[in-house]
């Protein structure tokens, strides 16, 4: 999921729901733990900023 766009992640969630009759997020929460769980659930939400603008001041920090 790390290399997928928000739209691709949304499609992944929809296909997962159709195939397994269960929420991807719910299953990730139930089957993983700790920091890995937090990472996967965050990625599953697909709320990443996809703009191509870079804040150079922030990047230099």
UniProtKB/TrEMBL annotation:
<dbReference type="InterPro" id="IPR037104">
    <property type="entry name" value="Annexin_sf"/>
</dbReference>
<keyword id="KW-0041">Annexin</keyword>
<dbReference type="InterPro" id="IPR018502">
    <property type="entry name" value="Annexin_repeat"/>
</dbReference>
<dbReference type="GO" id="GO:0005509">
    <property type="term" value="F:calcium ion binding"/>
</dbReference>
<dbReference type="GO" id="GO:0005737">
    <property type="term" value="C:cytoplasm"/>
</dbReference>
<dbReference type="GO" id="GO:0005886">
    <property type="term" value="C:plasma membrane"/>
</dbReference>
<dbReference type="Pfam" id="PF00191">
    <property type="entry name" value="Annexin"/>
</dbReference>
<dbReference type="GO" id="GO:0012506">
    <property type="term" value="C:vesicle membrane"/>
</dbReference>
<dbReference type="GO" id="GO:0001786">
    <property type="term" value="F:phosphatidylserine binding"/>
</dbReference>
<comment type="similarity">
    <text>Belongs to the annexin family.</text>
</comment>
<dbReference type="GO" id="GO:0005544">
    <property type="term" value="F:calcium-dependent phospholipid binding"/>
</dbReference>
<keyword id="KW-0677">Repeat</keyword>
<dbReference type="GO" id="GO:0005634">
    <property type="term" value="C:nucleus"/>
</dbReference>
<protein>
    <submittedName>
        <fullName>Annexin</fullName>
    </submittedName>
</protein>
């Amino acid at each position: 999921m790390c290399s997928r766009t928000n739209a691709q992640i949304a499609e992944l969630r929809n296909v997962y729901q159709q195939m397994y009759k269960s929420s991807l997020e719910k299953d990730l929460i139930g089957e993983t733990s700790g920091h890995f769980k937090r990472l996967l659930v965050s990625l599953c939400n697909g709320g990443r900023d996809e703009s191509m603008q870079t804040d150079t001041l922030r990047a230099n920090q």
